[in-house]
Structure formats: C-alpha cells, structure tokens
Amino acid sequence: MRYPETDAQAVVYHANFLVYCDVARVEYFRQMAGPDPGAGREVWARRHNFDIVLVNANCDFRASARFDDLLTVSMHLDRIGTSSFTLAYRISRGDTLVCEARTVHVTIDRQSREKRPLPDELKQALTAFEAALEAAS
Q1: CA atoms of 24 and 3, how far apart (whole Å)
Q2: Of 13, 90, 101, 113, which has the maximum CB count within 10 A?
Q3: Domain total for the chain?
Q4: pLDDT tens digits for the chain (137 residues)?
C-alpha cells in the first residue's frame, strides 16, 4: 500500500478498495481478451452497440490494511443474468482476508441508455474464461 492511499492513521482509506477492484476487473477483461484485442470487452460493446455500466458495488471489511502492506486481489465471475453479471473479489494480506466485495454490471444500449440483454457472445466468453481459470488453478 502506498502512503497516499492511507488515512491519518496510516490505514488504507476504505474507498480505495473499490479502486483495487476496478484494477482487477480491467485486468480480468484484458486477460480474457488474450493476444487478440478484437476479442476484448470494448470490441464486443461496439460490435453489439452496448455499454457496460456499474450499478452496484459493496464491500465487507474484515481486517485493516496499512501503509506498506502487500495486498492480493482475486476475483471471479459470480453470476450471469439476462442483462447483468456480478463479479466477486477477495482482497487479502497473506492469509488474512481484508475485504470481500461484489460489483454488479449491466449492459445498456448505447443510444437509448436503456438496459438490454447481455450478448450471447459475451456470456459465452465470460463462462469459457472462468472455466479456463478454474482448470488452471
């Protein structure tokens, strides 16, 4: 943990945990796309005329993290719905669970900004990537 991410007590400021989740989410989609950038989330979004928006985020804090701690963020696809998906995160310091978080993302039409179903191609890619991650562990 970097010093600017802490509060006056040198404890990681709570809102930063969602930043760490966001970094993990971006990396997740980058890994899912693989060497072909045409397979990434943004390309699907443009091809299918949708955007993905964050509609809910929550954190359950289990322990504090302090300046100079090394944290590990792990995440996985928790649920796929008709127009949304949920990602689950675990942020740990060694064997100590520091934070559990969940984010819910909804697909919306780019023009109308109304909710729309997740494209089957995206659902399949998310499911296949999760299966590959599980097989690798």
Answers
A1: 20
A2: 101
A3: 1
A4: 666 676 677 777 788 899 999 999 988 988 887 766 555 556 656 666 788 899 999 999 999 998 889 999 999 999 999 999 999 999 999 999 999 999 999 999 888 999 999 988 889 989 999 999 989 87
